[in-house]
Amino acid sequence: MVDMLPDGAQWASFAIGRHQLPWVAESVLRGGHVRVGLEDNLYLSKGVKATNGQLVEREVRIVEDLGATVAGPDAARRILGLKAATR
pLDDT tens digits for 1-28? Predict the structure, then answer.
């Protein structure tokens, strides 16, 4: 389906349960963005409950190990062409 997107399209994908973290790598390798969170996965590994922070930290490691960059809120707004946050 990624091949069907127009050039320059911004997209993200996610998976649930035990597939969540491997899919982070798959999405990055295919040129997409990712998201993770407890709404999709409760575990860091089999039988080990995660916190949202632990899932995010692991995602960041995966993304950076693949040579990609994690966008913070301001960078994400620029990527998506959204207005800057008002503070």
Answer: 888 999 989 999 888 888 888 899 999 9
